[in-house]
Amino acid sequence: MTIRVLLADDQALLRSAFRVLVDSEPDMEVVGEASDGLEAARMTKELRADVVLMDIRMPGTDGLAATRMISADPDLADVRVVILTTFEVDDYVVQSLRAGASGFLGKGSEPEELLNAIRIAAGGQALLSPAATTGLISRFLAQQDPADDDRDPARGERLDSLTVREREVLVQVAGGHSNDEIAERLEVSPLTVKTHVNRAMAKLGARDRAQLVVIAYESGLVRPRVE
């Protein structure tokens, strides 16, 4: 199946470079280009994109707002947003994960990394390593002033719906461990871990693994630490 990719970036030169790269692959194609977030959200629905490569900083409606629009539309539940940023540690990136993005990728990444990210995101997974996601979220949340906390209290309550094993698996996911590593730690099969992860996602309303990590920190299940 061909992966349908939408490019959202206000720089035409970058869009052109991404188009050449993506269209060179036999299993993916660029179906459209957008120069701002509002246009990206509209085109995502019109063109039935599978993956949106979203620049986070664009004039007018930015990538963060566009990601929220896409994530809030039930007709686009299967769409995956990959945030492209020039900043490795950026509070906007964490906000994007909260808004429903599947992860982020630096604009300076190698071409193969970008193509691999598209394939992983299209498969419904977090496109970056859990450890990278965890490190970013941990550093960001550890710097927040409790008085300015915008966490959703309901998420803490939703943790009550998890079984003991699902909660154990969630802690391991937030710790940056893969399914195989979690399986070894908990002495179960990788398939069992995957089942627990999927059930936790369904109960907590998470689109993917990256959002599970965010929820684990925001709910207080896992405490951030400053390195």
From TrEMBL:
Residues 4-122 form the Response regulatory domain. CDD domains: LuxR_C_like, REC_NarL-like. The modification 4-aspartylphosphate is found at residue 55. Gene3D superfamilies: 3.40.50.2300. It holds the Pfam family Response_reg. Residues 155-220 form the HTH luxR-type domain. One of its GO terms (molecular function) is DNA binding. Keywords: DNA-binding, Phosphoprotein, Transcription, Transcription regulation. InterPro entries: CheY-like_superfamily, NreC/VraR/RcsB-like_REC, Sig_transdc_resp-reg_C-effctor, Sig_transdc_resp-reg_receiver, Tscrpt_reg_LuxR_C, WalR-like. This is DNA-binding NarL/FixJ family response regulator. It comes from Streptomyces africanus. The lineage of its organism: Bacteria, Bacillati, Actinomycetota, Actinomycetes, Kitasatosporales.
